[in-house]
Amino acid sequence: MIRFGVRGRSVCFESLDKHLKLGSIRESSTIFKSSSERTIPKQRLRCLIDSETRSNETEGRRSSSTASASTAPTPEPRKTCLHDLHVENRGKIINFSGWLLPVQYQEAIAASHQHTRTFASLFDVGHMLQTQVSGKDVTEFLESLTTSDLKNLNTGSAVLTVFTNENGGILDDLIITKDNDDKYFVVSNAARRDEDTELLLQQQENYKRRGKSVKLQFLDPLEQSLVALQGPTAASVLRAIMKINLTHLSFMNSVETTVFGNPIRVTRCGYTGEDGFEISMPAKIARTLVQAILDTPDTKLAGLGARDSLRLEAGLCLYGHDIDEETTPVEAGLTWLIAKRRREEANFPGAKRILSQIKTGTVKKRIGLTVVHGPPVREGACILTPEGERVGKITSGGPSPTLGRSIAMGYVPPELAHYGGGILVEVRGKTYKATVTKMPFVKTNYYTAK
C-alpha cells in the first residue's frame, strides 16, 4: 500500500530483506534456461516463498518474546486432496497462505513457465474458496457485496468482480458463475477464506432478518478439488478425455458435465494469460482425472512459482500485494469491473468514493514497468521520478522468462503513469532506469470462439 503525503508524494524505505521477496511466489534472481537439470540455488529459494507467509513467520518470531503463554498456537497448514500427488512427483512443498502446496517440481520454474506458454500445465488450486450460493434473492444478495451486473449476466457465464468495503477498498477479487437466476458458483482467494466467509455469512444474516432467502454452501477442499489446466494445448487435452464441445465454450463461460459418473464443472478461465480451464470436481475422482490429464502428451504439473510469473506477465493483480482494502478498483486500473448499470444505480459498497474517482481521478495509479538493464525488481522496491524523488513502490516484480528482462507493477501519481515514460527504481540502494509499460506485458491468448 502507498500512502501519499505532501504534494501526493510518499516516503519509501527499503531493506535488503525486502529485495529478497517477490510478493507471492517469485522466480529467482536469474532467468533459468529451459532445462530440468537446472535447480534453484538454496539462497534464492527465499524469493519464491509467499511474502504473506514470511511476514507471518517474522511477526510470529517478533511477538513470541513478549506474548503470553495463553497466545493461541499457529494453525497447522492445510492440505488439498491432491497433496499426495505433489509429494509423489517430488514437488517442493511450501506453506502458502496456510496451505501446503508445490512451488515447483523437478524443473526450474522458468522451464515450467515456458512449458505453459508452449503446451499445457496443470496447477492445483484446490486451496481457493469454492462457494455455492442459491435462493430466490441470491442475485440481489451478491450484487449487494460486489460491483458486478449479475442480473444481466447470461446463464453459464462467469464474471470477474470484487468485494468492496464502504470506503471503496477491495476486500477480495473473485469469479462468479451464473448457473441460473437462483444459483451461482463463486471462487475466491484462499488467503481471504476467513474474511470472505464471514462477509457472506453476515450478509446472509442481514437478508434473513429481512425475510429474504439466501443459502450458502462452502465446499470442503478435501471433498471438492479445483485444478487449472493452462496453455495453448489445454483444449486438445480436454477433448481427449471429456465429451465436451469446447468450440462454443468461450473465455469466462462454464459448463457442467459428467466424468467417471460424477458431476464436474469446467470453466474457461485462468490466471496465466493463456487459454485454459478451471475444473471443479469431487475429490473421489480428482486423482484419476488429473492423472488422465497428465497422461496426455506434453502436459505437466506446475507449481506456484510458474503460476506467479505467468500471472505477472499477464498483468494480473495478486490480492494482498497489488490490491488490498486500502486500494480502490479505480486506483488499481480495474474500473472496468464497475458495471454500467451499477454505476447508474450507485448501490454497491463504496460507490460514493469509487464513482467520484471515476469522475475526478485518483492520487495514485497502478502501472507496469520494464527494466531492461539491472537486477530484478522485487516487491517493496521504491519507485522514483527521473529526478530521484521517491513517489511510490513496487507491489509485484521479477524476471520475465518470456521477455528476458525484469518486469514489475506498482503505484505512482497519475502524472507519472503515461506509457513510455521514464522512471527510476531503487534496488539495494542503487537506482536503475525503467519504462512505464502497457499491460499485459505478454499478449494474452484467451479463447473468444470467433
Automatic annotation (TrEMBL):
It catalyses: N(6)-[(R)-S(8)-aminomethyldihydrolipoyl]-L-lysyl-[protein] + (6S)-5,6,7,8-tetrahydrofolate = N(6)-[(R)-dihydrolipoyl]-L-lysyl-[protein] + (6R)-5,10-methylene-5,6,7,8-tetrahydrofolate + NH4(+). Residues 364-443 form the Aminomethyltransferase C-terminal domain. Residues 63-73 have a biased composition (Low complexity). GO terms for cellular component: glycine cleavage complex; mitochondrion. Residues 49-79 are annotated as: Disordered. Its main location: mitochondrion. Keywords: Aminotransferase, Mitochondrion, Transferase, Transit peptide. The glycine cleavage system catalyzes the degradation of glycine. GO terms for molecular function: aminomethyltransferase activity; transaminase activity. It comes from the Eukaryota. It comes from Melipona bicolor. Pfam families: GCV_T, GCV_T_C. Belongs to the GcvT family. The glycine cleavage system is composed of four proteins: P, T, L and H. Residues 82-340 form the GCVT N-terminal domain. GO terms for biological process: glycine catabolic process. InterPro entries: GcvT, GcvT/YgfZ/DmdA, GcvT/YgfZ_C, GcvT_C, GCVT_N, TrmE/GcvT-like. It is an enzyme of class 2 (transferase). Substrate binds at residue 278. This is Aminomethyltransferase.
